[in-house]
Design goal:
heterodimer, A: Rossmann fold, 6-stranded mixed beta sheet, 10 strands, B: mainly alpha, two-stranded antiparallel sheet, 11 helices, disordered C terminus, binds adenosine-5'-triphosphate, binds magnesium ion
Amino acid sequence: MSAEKMLSVKDLHVYYGQIHAIKGIDFEVEQNEIVTLIGANGAGKTTILHTISGLIPAKEGEIKFCGNNLTAMAAHNVTKLGLSHVPEGRHVFSEMTVLENLEMGAYTRKDRSKISEDLDFIFTRLPRLKERRKQNAGTLSGGEQQMLAIGRAYMAKPKMMLLDEPTMGLSPLLVGEIFEIIKLVNQMGVTILLVEQNAKLALEISNRAYVLETGRMVMNGLSKDLLNDERVKDAYLGG
Amino acid sequence: MDIFILQLINGLSLGSIYALVALGYSMVYGIVKLINFAHGDIIMVSCFTMYTAMEIAGLPLLVSIPLTLILTAVLGIIIEKLAYDRLISKGVERISLLITAIGVSIFLQSTFQLIFKADSLRYQAFLPSKTISLFGIEPSLKSVVTIIVSLVLMLALTLFVKLTKVGKAMRAASEDASAAKLMGINTSNVVAFTFAIGSLLAAVAGILYFESYPRIEPYMGGMLGLKAFVAAVIGGIGSIPGAMAGGLILGVAEAMTVSIGLSSYSDAVVFGILIIMLVLKPSGLFGKNIREKV
Ligand SMILES: Nc1ncnc2c1ncn2[C@@H]1O[C@H](COP(=O)(O)OP(=O)(O)OP(=O)(O)O)[C@@H](O)[C@H]1O
Ligand SMILES: [Mg+2]
């Protein structure tokens, strides 16, 4: 594995007004890794992803991605650098068609022929999206919308993808499918930072993990070690 | 029967002007949830620009019209960048945006009053006041031109929003601004662009409207703007087809009221339709989000 740090976050502090949501965290993601961030409701996982992708500002600290300083960068410029974000709750454009959603994913790209190759790739791997490509995204099921959200992020041809609770509210069968898609995206050369409530599955597919508690990183290590860690078992793996 | 069709044409003509202005309200609201109270004044600015180009500078019509359209669109962008952009990107309360819009409106009215004084100016219509023969009826040339120009523009706008990359970005930003940013869309530019299109359509509406009512003064944007806003609400604010339908409905209703001899009630009819709509379907004809207050 290359030692190059694709993403590094140093001493990050984020506030919502007076609320100190992220209280000085550090972490790193290396190229081609799958890193997972686990933590209870309200721990600050979404806040961290939003800050990385520029949707909310950092108060203090530094975020670097492939040598670029993201700390004060607008969200649309972050995307252009090759960092795609699949937001919590999917946020597909429900009044646009499946195809238009995927086109929006490729918004910053100019390489038309490559775009249609990637579109074909997605339609081959996710045939349900192909069948429904003329339908409005709002008419899709939850699982299909999640696939669309991931496909849309993939269409940006990112170096790295942030995924925020991609399996939320899905049936066990679909959860398995989504995890397969995430592995596939990773095999296609996309580095993954995955936020999950489903800690067991997340630890099983990831290389390393960080554990977040009320705005602080309390633990990190290889995922296979954390899977056997008593404290992790108690708090996140249902004992 | 001929009278009825004639009045229908008059109504559609007035209605298509409302529709053009309503589109500006609706598209801006769709993206930034701002009721742009200065939008009516954009009509006024376009008319004074037209007046200045034609009457003061003596430019030919074919120069004055594009010049007016371009300057009005640019004004829309300038207003957005100077007055709203920073507020929007800071994510301020909607009431702050609203108050800013009222401020912009007062600013435009006062500035033009300062320059052109409060008296109304006579504006030379460029279309001749004659009727044309059309399937045995004789509508005025102005009405027919107004309807055709408006329909062409509405069709063009619909295709633009549906098919072009920028149009799709507008729809995406209108539905979910954060998600649009994550796609790499510079939503701030999309908003400015939306203001430009809205202002351009308002300028066309202004030029057409004052063909039939050729007196201009700094406060003239008020009533026309208000009625167009009502049209946008009736159609479902935020919806492009809604603004078009709302405008046409209002225009026809107004013309019909006049044609049955109740012209002094025409404004009452406009606001009556609004009240009925708000009671029956607060989100408007094409509106989806019932909970969204307007
Ligand atoms: N817009 C906001 N305004 C104020 N406080 C907020 C806002 N968003 C989040 N918070 C607070 O910040 C903290 C972190 O929230 P965040 O959404 O990042 O948690 P999370 O780990 O993603 O939780 P979940 O698992 O429920 O998605 C919480 O205490 C939350 O209440
Ligand atoms: Mg969250």
